[in-house]
Amino acid sequence: MRIDGRAFRTIWLGADGASVEVIDQRALPHRFALRTLRDAGDAAAAIADMTVRGAPLIGAAGAYGLALAMAADPSDANLSTAHGALLVARPTAVNLRWALDRMRARLAPLKAGERRGAAFAEAVRIADEDAGTCERLGEHGAALIAEAWERNGRSRPVDVLTHCNAGWLAAVDWGTALAPIYKAHRAGVPVHVWVDETRPRNQGASLTAYELLGEGVPHTVVVDNVGGHLMQHGRVDLCIVGTDRTTRTGDVCNKVGTYLKALAAHDNGVPFYVALPSSTVDWRVSDGVREIPIEERSADEVTFVSGETASGAIETVRVVPRGSAVSNYAFDVTPARLVTGLITERGVCAASEAGLLSLFPGEEGD
Ligand code: MRU
């Protein structure tokens, strides 16, 4: 997608063929900066400190990280060590395990001397496939937006509410929840996006708004708690969100606050869709609420707020009194019964085991 008119992906092999470049998402929307990853430790750190974030991108970054590890030491021992170190960089997005397991399955049977080249090739393949997958799911999701436009008699733009950032910055390209919006917008279907700011890290206000601005998609940033009000007043035609992990039964783990939007959507008869590449399905998990670990992040993310001052300086200020207890759960689980449908690269299905298996037969889990 575009930044200042230039096409970018979020991650790519460096010009030297031995390093990896990523967009440093911590600096956005104030500054556009790149970060070079030179070894597996750099890749794990970039995932952990959220230089790169979003489930599909975390997976791609893990794959490139393992390739960097193989460039340094292609031994069996290092394959296992690097796989383990990258796997624990962040706990929720299952794409990380998916990509690392795929890399290991490709590399383990090879002789050590063959691994470096094969590892970079496989990481590039994973990234390319993710871009293609997200573009395809965007096409399927765009059809839902076009249907909503027909339903309202083409009388006004389709109002879509989204939470967090599930755009191209969260993937390799296109994104998940925003891909349908980009496809619809490019096809001439008028869309307006309600962008939840998504405290505490404000991925909506900082990243989703930044992306939509770059693509020229009309949007409005709103505080996280306004969605219910907007839905009560007919201001939302459909919700589309991303997911960091989806169970085989269609439960969806996504950025904290998603569940409350789904409840409000259910109460108001607003369709609630979740967009995902199939690499985000954890076929081993059936009960999202009980089985998916929810990442708890630093209390500082809640206690302090950072932003750009009128003079252009970046400042961080405290918004919680010293002495108050603070907790910071980063994700929540939306039960499948609140999800209207899953938008995948193979089409839209019910949020259920039968629905997922109708599109991805043979995925019986471990
Ligand atoms: O903590 P983050 O920023 O890595 O959160 C992940 C997300 O971007 C969202 O949960 C997103 O909606 C799903 S990933 C496409």
Task: Walk me through what this model shows.
It is a single chain. By secondary structure, the chain is an alpha/beta fold. The chain folds into two domains: 128 residues, Up-down Bundle (Four Helix Bundle (Hemerythrin (Met), subunit A)), CATH 1.20.120; 208 residues, 3-Layer(aba) Sandwich (Rossmann fold), CATH 3.40.50.10470. It is built from twelve helices and 18 strands. The strands form five sheets. The chain has a seven-stranded mixed beta sheet, with helices on both faces. It has a four-stranded mixed beta sheet with strand order 13-10-11-16, covered by helices on one side. Strand 10 and strand 11 form a beta hairpin. It is globular. The mean pLDDT is 97. The structure holds 5-S-methyl-1-O-phosphono-5-thio-D-ribulose. The site of 5-S-methyl-1-O-phosphono-5-thio-D-ribulose (MRU) has 16 residues, from strand 11. It catalyses: 5-(methylsulfanyl)-alpha-D-ribose 1-phosphate = 5-(methylsulfanyl)-D-ribulose 1-phosphate; 5-deoxy-alpha-D-ribose 1-phosphate = 5-deoxy-D-ribulose 1-phosphate. Keywords: Amino-acid biosynthesis, Isomerase, Methionine biosynthesis. InterPro entries: IF-2B-related, IF-M1Pi, IF_2B-like_C, Initiation_fac_2B_a/b/d, M1Pi_N, NagB/RpiA_transferase-like. It is an enzyme of class 5 (isomerase).
